[in-house]
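Morning F.,

Quick status update on the modeling queue. The single chain you submitted on Monday has been processed. Sequence for confirmation:
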Amino acid sequence: MRWEQYEIWAATKGQWGLVAYFHDFDVATAVFRNRTYRQRLIHAVYEDGKLVQQEILAEVGGTREAP
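Structure tokens below.
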């Protein structure tokens, strides 16, 4: 079985974690726009329960490292 989904990942204390996932791109982007911390919107493709493809569509937030 193969499926695609859009995932929102957020960085907390230097670690990325999955916040939510959606099958609809429009819903995912609406949720993504309403968040304020460092995050990524990812298009992921799974096959037989395993991740086979992943593409970062957008990344926003504090991307600069502090000195």
